[in-house]
Amino acid sequence: MTDKLALDVAYALQSPEDNRRLYAEWAESYDQDFADDMGYVLPIFVADVFVQCPGRTHSGRILDVGAGTGLVGKRLAYHSVHSVDGLDISAEMLAVAFAKGYYKKTIECNLLERLPIVSAKYDGIISAGTFTHGHVGPAALDELLRIAKPGALFCLSINLEHFETAGFKKKLKEIDNDIDNLSLQTVPIYMQGSVGKHASDLGVIVLFRKTLP
Questions:
Q1: How many Å apart are CA 93 and CA 114, to the nearest integer?
Q2: 131 C-beta neighbours (distance < 10 Å), count
Q3: Are 64 and 106 in contact (CB under 8 A)?
Q4: Cα separation, 110 vs 107, whole angstroms
Q5: Which string of DSSP letters, residue by residue, matches 69-132?
Q6: Of 25, 97, 103, 125, which cross-links 70 as Cys (Cβ 3.0–4.6 Å)?
Q7: What are the phi and psi torsion angles at 153 (to 5°)?
Q8: CA angle at residue 172 from 139 to 134, to 5 degrees?
Q9: Which whole-number Å values give the CA distances from 92 to 15, 57, 68, 75, in the listed order?
Q10: What pLDDT, in 10s, does the model give residues 142-192?
């Protein structure tokens, strides 16, 4: 499967089982066949924004949502951020990620269901490439807020087209009383010249904090 074909297949996924099948097949070659060949820079942008956020605590536990093969974890480690857990629907992708040594532990679960995580556990929630076509919509934000501590920092990328069509803008208004300091930043998903120029090539980094009591 070519990198562009794989991207088209990923964007067309319809169910959690579709996701599991694709990423089970893709896990071992994902870094080279997709991340490297496509110039996939979104995880770098997301991790950098998270680390550079004013007032970010330098201690506490962080959850990488949709960790995949650990590209966000790798960039966080570059910034000397090491207290990170990885969550993904694909056991095969998590196995690749965990073997790299960037995560304290990994959690295999479906973001569309209740997460097997106690409430108010994490000081930070980060995600790159998970809130996109064929993957996860805004309903997952409720569970992520539940498992975050009051004051926790969220840094989530959302595909620009997905942000506009899947209801993320509406959802952010609905949870307005639960979040503070909301900011949006548009960034490229791929290195310049890697793919065609259209909205699917752009991501919105959504940055906010869970409100304090």
A1: 21
A2: 26
A3: no
A4: 10
A5: TTHHHHHHHHTT---EEEEES-HHHHHHHHHTT--SEEEE--TTS--SS-TT-EEEEEEEEEES
A6: 97
A7: -90, 130
A8: 40
A9: 17, 31, 9, 20
A10: 999 999 999 999 999 999 988 888 899 999 999 999 999 999 999 999 886
Find tokens 């679960």 and name the residue.
Answer: 109
Nearest to 47 by CA among 107, 115, 126: 126
pTM for the full predicted model: 0.87
Q: Say how many C-beta atoms besides its own lie within 10 A of residue 186's C-beta.
A: 11
> What tokens were used for 144?
């992520």
Q: Measured between alpha carbons, how far is 28 from 79 in angstroms, rounded to an integer?
A: 25
Measured in residues, the chain has a length of 213
